[in-house]
Every structure is written in structure tokens, then in C-alpha cells.
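Input chain follows. Return C-alpha cells only.
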Amino acid sequence: MTVDFAAETPETQAEPTGPSIIYTAYFSAVEELVEHMRAADVLNLGFRVESYLVTSEEAPDTIQVEFEFTLLSEQPTREEERD
């Protein structure tokens, strides 16, 4: 079997933007979020967690915290703080 690869020119080479996303999940329970964080740590994968407030349609006067968990293909690198 023969496989041909197109040569990349400097114009087509993209700068690496960081680790790729494996999947994203949404949680309303902290316990589920922590379980996913521990699993990512055991597998030496990176992750990103964002939290946000959500109002329920049934009870518009109540606010609930929900979490977005994004599993990354590798540990992200931290940029040095700039003065």
C-alpha cells in the first residue's frame, strides 16, 4: 500500500494552539465534576473547568451553579505572568 502526503509549505503550517479537545461535559453536581477531574489526573490528561450561573425556567427566582468540563489531550502549559 502506498500513501502520499502533501508537503506542507510555510504558508500552510499552522501554529500549535495548545492541546486538542477530547470532549466537553456539563454537570450540575460538584461530585460528578470532581470525579472527572480525578480521572483526567490519573490518565495524565489536561482539563478546563468553567462555572456559570443558570436560572431555572420553572423557578426563575432561583439560581443554580453549573459546570462545563473540557477534557484535553494533554496538560496545558501555563504562560508566565507578564508585568
